[in-house]
Write a structure and sequence with these properties.
Number of strands: 10
Bound molecules: lanosterol
Oligomer: single chain
Family: Belongs to the terpene cyclase/mutase family.
InterPro entries: SQ_cyclase_C, SQ_cyclase_N, Squalene_cyclase, Terpene_synthase_CS, Terpenoid_cyclase/PrenylTrfase
EC number: 5.4.99.-
Pfam families: SQHop_cyclase_C (PF13243), SQHop_cyclase_N (PF13249)
Number of helices: 26
GO molecular function: lanosterol synthase activity
Largest sheet: 2 strands, antiparallel
Distance between the termini: 57 Å
Length: 729
């Protein structure tokens, strides 16, 4: 059966079907842009066979051969590479799922619904499958991320999402979810972003949404709170959010949203006092309570500014300027947008401003596909439009660290990775970069692809480092010119914070930490400005130490100065117990690996440095009887080491890599750890997925599935280079 929809797309499957045909899904890698295609005809299927990577992602049998059991670390690395190299795409990159956060898909589906964008049936089916697969069995709810306890945010948004995708409210799983939502108080106890989305959908009233005043964009640049000073992710979400809120735009009531008005609240919809519930928030959701300052500002906007002072001229000026900035964001990202939150919001803004048939709306609709991923559990929304550049750089480095960059089996893998990174280096700064407050980016790499176009400090560093390492191998051509490598070094030199000497993520810090007092999101910490990160700082240091060995005469003094100050900051960032807190991986093992590498770059080892000894002692104190490490995501939330119930391969490798950089004098604990890692390797060379690996904003976890290949390869390879390829098992 096939039905023509609004945009002329054929939908051959019934959206109420249980499952799509997994042999029809293909990942299309188009110059670093990844989208999943569902092949509708047998002809297409015959022409375009599923790759091993497709099958792996979909949970189908990849046909990977069994490999002889490894006794030595390099044998284990070879086994791992025989599996992992099959996952490399034709374009040279590694892709993977980048899920974890449970608040992304609902934003997209609400946007689709209110912009009347047809949802392909195979999308609806597999999205429902994913959300049900990730529903907590005990209470039927969802949390902020896949491993988090149920919250109002997770449950109200995913329940709504399922309903928009066609789930039946009487389905026992929906009944259970609704029961839990009501027990938690109902949707009015959700955080700011839930209130925003549900008001857009028309199942809440705008009076319940704390102010998101676009007027802030009219402030001159010099004020300490001007939005250009905020962390890029906050200001790029705030931007379309303020545009939409200013218009109080809501989708007209439909039978479905009318039903949701009954389902999302334990009390009758008509009885809810919206304005007095602006600050209602469940304890289960409230990671970062709003400050007295924010509460005061909100009160002023609600009670004084909006009713009395907000004249039309100012309102219009604010909306016009935010609209202009939204267009800059679209232009400078080729409509791919910074991330999965502002992407749908920008789509909605364009729809409101320019209407359904506008070119901008069409392009946005196309790029929503870039965020979607299909796996054995169904379809989910990734945290970015992919992990292409980041994972590819790491994978290449791991092979070279293992001393296998010249091995005829693996050199082609490195060469393909290099060819990919060549295409992904950003070659031009953003258009009107000052006007839209963009950081320089010419010569940089981003996390995902060039199209998205956001330079990141550590992504540029890892990109540069892997290119230099690869191009130094005999047999590998120089694909990226010396001049272009200098441009990457130039970018790295822009990333040092003047006050501390450390590095942040996308920009240098532009505002004071006190701006965190205006953090309105309730569910995240450290979102308002850039912070100093040991991970990013180390990456920049290592990127530049690698560069200066290759090109000792270029900007020598500046590079020297950056490195010295940055490593000095790493020392001051060490906590009294010897650890470093990680912001992008879980948690102390991740940051410890980076910090110890930075210190090693200055020649500081266990023998020569007190800081290194304390760092190692911290890690050694956490090694378990089985030789491994295991750290819970609670470490990130609470900022204290918290054991995971199981030992984790990835964290074990992080710890061991750190110890090896530190030249830890005793190799016995390192060997014990690697034995544990080797024992967990499967017969086909792979490792299985364990607990979630990454984090952002302290409270939200995110998956890095390729890490279970990359870091064992690096750790085992480093061991063999250092101690020889001796049998460990
Ligand atoms: C990422 C992904 C990559 C990550 C590293 C490169 C690993 C890190 O070292 C620097 C920061 C960076 C670039 C990063 C920042 C925050 C992101 C973009 C994410 C964790 C992926 C998703 C997250 C984004 C903020 C999710 C949307 C949520 C909001 C609160 C807007």
């Amino acid at each position: 059966e096939s039905e023509k929809t609004g945009n002329g797309r054929a939908i051959p499957t019934d959206p109420q079907a249980d499952k799509t045909d997994y042999s029809r899904w293909r990942m299309l890698d188009d110059g670093g842009r990844q989208t999943w295609q569902y092949l509708r005809t047998d002809e297409e299927v015959a022409k375009w066979p599923q790759t091993a990577a497709d099958k792996y992602f979909l949970g189908l049998d990849t046909g990977a051969p069994e490999v002889p059991p490894a006794k030595t670390p390099i044998a284990s690395v070879n086994n791992a590479l025989s599996f992992f190299s099959r996952l490399q795409s034709a374009g040279g990159s590694w892709a993977c799922e980048y899920g974890g956060p449970m608040f992304l898909l609902p934003g997209l589906v609400i946007t689709w619904y209110v912009t009347e964008t047809p949802i392909p049936a195979e999308h609806a089916i597999e999205m429902k499958n994913y959300l049900f697969a990730r529903q907590h069995k005990v209470d039927g709810g969802w949390g902020l991320h896949i491993e988090g306890d149920s919250s109002v945010f997770g449950t109200s948004m995913n329940y709504t999402c399922l309903r928009l995708l066609g789930a039946d409210p009487e389905d026992p799983r929906m009944v259970k979810a609704r029961g839990t939502l009501h027990k938690m108080g109902g949707a009015i106890y959700g955080p700011h972003w839930a209130k925003f989305w549900l008001s857009v959908l028309g199942v809440m009233q705008w009076d319940i949404v704390n102010p998101v005043p676009p007027e802030l964009w009219l402030l001159p640049d010099w004020t300490p709170i001007s939005p250009w000073r905020w962390w890029i992710h906050m200001r790029m979400v705030f931007l379309p959010m303020s545009f939409v809120s200013s218009k109080k735009w809501s989708y007209p009531l439909t039978p479905l949203t009318e039903a949701l008005r009954k389902e999302l609240f334990p009390q009758p919809y008509e009885s809810i006092k919206w304005s007095s519930n602006r600050n209602s928030i469940s304890k289960l959701d409230e990671y970062y309570p709003k400050s007295w300052l924010l509460n005061t500002v909100n009160t002023v906007f609600v009670n004084i500014w909006n009713p009395f002072l907000r004249i039309n001229r100012i309102k219009k000026a604010a909306e016009d300027w935010t609209w202009k900035l939204i267009q800059y964001e679209d232009l400078n990202t080729g409509f791919a947008n910074l991330g999965p939150v502002n992407g749908p919001m920008n789509l909605l803004s364009c729809y409101i401003q320019e209407g359904s048939d506008a070119e901008s709306v069409k392009l946005h609709r196309e790029h929503m596909e870039d965020f979607l991923w299909v796996k054995d559990e169904g379809m989910l929304m990734n945290g970015t439009n992919g992990v292409q550049s980041w994972d590819t750089a790491f994978a290449m480095q791991a092979i070279v660290y293992a001393g296998l960059g010249e091995d005829p089996r693996w050199q082609p893998v490195v060469r393909k990775g290099l060819a990919f990174l060549e295409t992904q280096q950003i070659r031009e700064d953003a258009v009107d970069m000052e006007k839209c407050y963009r950081h320089p980016r010419k010569g940089a790499w981003g996390f995902s692809n060039k199209l998205q176009g956001y330079a990141v400090s550590d992504c540029t560093a890892e990109g540069l480092k892997s290119v230099i390492m690869a191009q130094a191998l005999p047999g590998i051509p120089e694909l990226i010119s010396h001049d272009r490598l200098r441009q990457a070094a130039d970018i790295l030199l822009t990333y040092q914070n003047a006050d501390t000497g450390a590095c942040s993520s996308y920009e240098t810090r532009r505002g004071g930490h006190w701006l965190e007092l205006l953090n309105a999101a309730e569910v995240f910490g450290n979102i308002m400005v850039e912070y100093d990160y040991p991970e990013c700082t180390t990456a920049v240091v290592i990127g530049l130490t690698t560069f200066r060995k290759f090109d000792p005469d270029y900007r020598t003094a500046e590079i020297e100065k950056l490195i010295t100050r940055a490593v000095a900051w790493i020392r001051t960032n060490q906590r009294p117990d010897g650890s470093w807190y990680g912001s992008w991986g879980i948690c102390f093992t991740y940051a410890g690996m980076f910090a110890l590498e930075a210190l090693a770059a200055m020649g500081e080892t266990h023998e020569s440095s007190e800081a290194v000894r304390r760092g190692c002692a911290f890690l050694m104190g956490k090694q378990r009887a089985d030789g491994g490490w295991g750290e819970s995501y609670k470490s990130c939330e609470d900022q204290v080491w918290t054991e995971h119930e199981n030992t984790q391969v990835v964290q074990t490798c992080w710890a061991v890599i750190g110890l090896m950089y530190a030249e830890y004098p005793d190799k016995e604990p390192i060997e014990r750890a690697l034995r544990m890692v080797m024992r967990r390797q499967q017969k086909n060379g792979e490792w299985l997925q364990e607990a979630i690996e990454g984090v952002f904003n302290k409270s939200c976890m995110i998956s890095y599935p390729n890490y279970k290949f990359i870091f064992p390869i690096k750790a085992l390879g480093m061991y063999a280079e250092k101690y020889g390829d001796v049998p460990l098992l």
